[in-house]
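FORM 12-B: Structure-to-Sequence Request
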């Protein structure tokens, strides 16, 4: 199930082709694009041209938002397992075969694999963590996924009856409805892990994640959600895991702040720093914030140096022209 909203033609093409290359046939897999009220015909045109009758398109007349569209994907899914693959992500060769083998050999409620994170041009910039060296069930996964968000939608498939039993994604969450869902599933069902890198999550400036990050709405939502998901554990355990989660996300916020400082500017970067401080004041976070400030001073010093050099060159040119 491929949720889409104003997709880029080339990204959606790559997404569809990555699935069609592994297509076992319509009797084994449903492939459908679920358009969330896009403002243009890109989803329709690409689905018609690349899908060639194999890929169906469902178009909602109005934009319903991220979580609601994912829930629409679940509602429309007919198979026993649901894979929600975003319009700009891809699956790598072997994804469906390896995950199918994993679920046949376990009673897991969800199965996921390692994934790569790619830039806007599709080049890998890092890969996800290796949770175990062979395929199989994960121990105490609920604690791990509460403390850190380590699963991207492209890399995970969930039994449809699990969604039906637990309910859908929470519509009030705009940035991390997936992280909350993985925690809710882990509180009641085992997770299976496939160590092969079989999916690719694309991070680019036009993504919903990048847009939300500019005003630190992502980190504010995370801070609120940590309090919610801590209640999925006993009180004592929830407090411990919430502290770990706040620390992990505070470090992530500082990392994002450094990226924003270099690529966008100081204002959006500083918003992330403020939210990082609201999440955690441990030594690692403070140290990373200090490193951020050093980077900012270096950038400002470099800009000042270029400005002075430009002024001097202008003055020399004026003197020479007299």
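FORM 12-B RESPONSE
SEQUENCE OUT:
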């Amino acid at each position: 199930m491929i949720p889409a909203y104003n997709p880029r033609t080339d990204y959606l093409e790559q997404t569809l082709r990555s699935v069609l290359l592994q297509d076992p046939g319509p009797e084994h897999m449903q492939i459908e694009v679920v358009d969330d009220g896009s403002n243009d015909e890109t989803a329709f045109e690409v689905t018609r041209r690349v899908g060639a009758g194999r890929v169906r398109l469902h178009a909602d007349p109005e934009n319903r938002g991220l979580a609601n569209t994912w829930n629409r994907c679940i509602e429309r899914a007919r198979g026993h397992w649901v894979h929600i693959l975003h319009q700009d992500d891809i699956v790598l060769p072997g994804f469906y075969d390896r995950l199918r083998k994993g679920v046949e050999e376990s009673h897991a409620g969800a199965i996921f694999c390692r994934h790569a994170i790619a830039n806007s041009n599709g080049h890998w910039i890092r890969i996800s963590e290796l949770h175990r060296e062979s395929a199989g069930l994960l121990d105490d996964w609920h604690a791990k996924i509460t403390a850190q968000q380590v699963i991207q939608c492209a890399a995970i498939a969930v039994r449809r009856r699990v969604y039906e039993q637990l309910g859908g994604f929470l519509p009030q969450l705009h940035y991390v409805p997936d992280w909350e869902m993985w925690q809710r599933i882990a509180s009641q069902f085992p997770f299976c892990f496939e160590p092969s890198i079989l999916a690719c999550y694309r991070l680019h400036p036009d993504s919903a994640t990048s847009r939300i990050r500019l005003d630190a709405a992502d980190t504010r939502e995370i801070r609120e959600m940590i309090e919610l998901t801590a209640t999925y554990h006993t009180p004592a355990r929830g407090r411990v895991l919430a502290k770990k989660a706040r620390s992990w996300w505070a470090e992530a916020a500082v990392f994002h702040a450094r990226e924003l400082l270099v690529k966008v500017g100081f204002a959006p970067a500083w918003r992330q720093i403020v939210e990082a401080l609201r999440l955690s004041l441990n030594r690692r976070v403070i140290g990373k914030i200090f490193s951020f400030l050093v980077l900012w001073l270096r950038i400002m010093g470099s800009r000042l140096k270029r400005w002075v050099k430009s002024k001097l060159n202008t003055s020399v040119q004026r003197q020479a022209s007299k």
